Amino acid sequence: GNSVTQMEGPVTLSEEAFLTINCTYTATGYPSLFWYVQYPGEGLQLLLKATKADDKGSNKGFEATYRKETTSFHLEKGSVQVSDSAVYFCALRTGAGSYQLTFGKGTKLSVIP
Amino acid sequence: DGGITQSPKYLFRKEGQNVTLSCEQNLNHDAMYWYRQDPGQGLRLIYYSQIVNDFQKGDIAEGYSVSREKKESFPLTVTSAQKNPTAFYLCAASSGGAHLYTDTQYFGPGTRLTVL
After folding, report:
1. Cα–Cα dist B90/B67, whole Å
2. Does A56 touch chain B (CB under 8 A)?
3. What does the pLDDT read at residue B105?
4. Cβ contact, residue pair B101, A46, below 8 Å
C-alpha cells in the first residue's frame, strides 16, 4: 500500500535559519506529491505540489523536488520567519483510480525570534 | 468569495447521540471528502464522493454516514456506533475528472467535535 514518512517533530528554529523537513514515500506507480500547511486551529492549505519526477514545486519561499530515485520530496526554505510556525504535512496520490490522499503524520515547526 | 465552509466550528455531543457536521462548497468541484485528524496523527479518510448521489468508504468509515444529494453539499453524520468520535474533522473538495491524481484538494476550516 501507499505510505508517507515524515521526520518526527517538533522542530524549533531561530528566525532566518534554514529549514529542511524530510519526506519519503512508498507508492505503486508514479504518485503526485504535495505539501500542505496547517496553522493553529485551521484547516489545511496547499503549499506546493509536484506531479512527475524531477519537478520542483515552490511557493512562498518553500521548495521541494520530486526525487524518484530516492522516493523523496523534502521541503526546504532558506530563511524561515515566525509566521512560518505551523504543522506541515507531506502527502501523495497515485493514479490508480482513487481520489485518496495519503498523508504523513505531520511535522510541527516553531520559529522563535 | 469561493471556498469551503464547515459548521459549526466547535461541537459538543453527549454519548449515544448522533450528530451531523455540515460541509458546503461553492467551487463547483465534483469530488468531496471527509477526513479525521487526531493529535499527532496525519489525516485519515472517512468517506469520499466523486459525483452527486454516489460515495465510497474510506479507511475508517465505521460509525459514520454521509449523503451527497447536491453537488455543493456533503454532510457527515457521526453515529453513536463510532466508539471514539472526539477529533478534528476536515472536509475537502477537488475538481476530479480526467486529472484526478494531479488535481488539488482544498480544505475547509474544520469542525472540532468533543464527546462529553
Report:
1. 16
2. no
3. 87
4. no
Return d(Cα A108, Cα A85) in angstroms, integer: 8
d(CA B95, CA B102) in angstroms, rounded, equals 10
Give the H or E element holding residue A4.
strand A3-6
Determine whether the interchain pair A43/B109 forms a contact, defined as Cβ–Cβ distance below 8 Å: yes
Is B45's CB within 8 Å of A32's CB? Answer: no
- As a whole number of angstroms, the distance between CA A100 and CA B58 comes to 8
| Residue B114: pLDDT band with limits 50, 70, 90 | very high
State CA A14 to chain mean position distance: 20
Tens-place pLDDT, residues B21-49? 999 999 999 999 999 999 878 899 999 99
Give Cα separations from A50 to B8, B30, B49, B73, B91 (angstroms).
Answer: 34, 22, 24, 29, 23
